[in-house]
Amino acid sequence: MKLKIRFNRDTNYYFGLFLLILASVSIVWAFLNDGFDPEDFIVYFLIYAWGMTLLLKSDAEFRLKRLEEETTRILDRLEQLEKALTPPAGEGGEEAPGVESSRQEETVTEGETGYWG
Predict the structure, then answer these.
(1) For residue 66, how many other CB atoms are within 10 A of its CB?
(2) Are 13 and 61 in contact (CB under 8 A)?
(3) Which of 30, 80, 103, 115 has its CB 3.0 to 4.6 Å from that of 36, i.e. a possible disulfide?
(4) Are 66 and 9 in contact (CB under 8 A)?
(5) In terms of Cα–Cα distance, which of 56, 45, 44 is closest to 15?
């Protein structure tokens, strides 16, 4: 059986995993050897918290990086589609019919609508 492990995360992710495993093993060792003191629990808890913080930070950065790459890829495809669908500029600079009328509708002021006075 071939083991397929790919290390594609940053070092904080694996260090966080190591800290979680270390804290788990140390708590089990403390329970088995009756060495569990309340002040030791604070150390175990801090090691767990540090490990979880590193894991969550690294995972959030990894997901954000993947999201940014996907968004960039989609935006590039959208630009290509816009270039392909945009007709070449006509001679004389005439706009498509209906464009000027939509611009005139956008310039309506409050006084003309009758809502405010």
Answers:
(1) 10
(2) no
(3) 30
(4) no
(5) 56
- Per DSSP, the residues of 32-51 read HTT---HHHHHHHHHHHHHH
The pTM assigned to this predicted structure is 0.56
Q: For tokens 């968004």, what's the residue?
A: 71
For residue 84 the two structure tokens come to: 């392909």
**How many beta carbons lie within 10 A of that of residue 10, not counting itself?**
14
Six-digit token string for 91: 């001679």
CB 47 within 8 A of CB 23: yes
What is the residue extent of each domain of the chain?
Answer: 11-85
